[in-house]
């Protein structure tokens, strides 16, 4: 399912874009030794979350699940032993994403693991444009659009913004929490003059955080 890179409609209003909000659960955070154990995603059109349009799959991991990982997401080895391997799941996941803009919290972590597998199976990484809600959060906070203190973790930001957080911590629930956060960001971005696709890609680019983003991501949940 290797896809050609689609041209980005750079002048399209951000409230008319299609987004797919993605989260993964991992055996750990070492990109060389760890692997994916679940992928969750939910679609958005502009600021509307499409509750009936979701993707969630457990994955038989290629590496052992660490004790720390089990504590975070409560997925045990026995739960994923009978699941499909990542090669089978990737095809369905990429089909679900289509050409939509990918959104995530510390997206660089999720996509580093996903793209490692996509490149291995299909020869090239995902071509979709990508946004990072943490980078957008920092951008809005620096401009006084958000009055929250500096947070890194998804659930801390959610609570500060009044997004309900329940006890479940898995890929689909975290994708839903991220979608609700991003939903709150859209009117703030428009008020700050970020109305077009090219503007959104500029302020939400995961690479804007550079090495600082990589370091602070280590304290985020996996």
- Classified by CATH, the class is Alpha Beta
Q: How widely separated are the two ends?
A: 27 Å
Total discrete domains: 1
- Strand-residue proportion: 15-25%
Largest sheet: 5 strands, mixed
Taking strands numbered 1, 2, ... along the chain, how are they ordered across the largest sheet?
3-2-1-4-5
Instruction: Give the % helix.
Output: 40-55%
The radius of gyration over CA amounts to 17 Å
Quantity of strands, as a count:
5
Task: Give the SSE order as H and E letters.
Answer: EEEHHHEHEHHHHH
CATH topology: Nucleotidyltransferase, domain 5
Indicate the low-confidence ranges by residue numbers: 210-219
Give the CA-based shape.
globular
Structure annotation, total helices? 9
Task: Please characterize this protein's 3D structure.
The chain has 222 residues and is of the alpha/beta class. It has a single domain (14-217), classed as Ribonuclease H-like superfamily/Ribonuclease H (Nucleotidyltransferase, domain 5, 2-Layer Sandwich), CATH 3.30.420.10. Helices cover 42% and strands 17% of the residues. The chain is built from nine helices and five strands, in the order βββαααβαβααααα. The chain has a five-stranded mixed beta sheet with strand order 3-2-1-4-5, with helices on both faces. β4, α4 (107-122) and β5 (130-132) form a beta-alpha-beta unit. α5 runs parallel beside α7 and α6 (154-160) packs across α7. The radius of gyration is 17 Å and the shape is globular. The two termini are 27 Å apart.
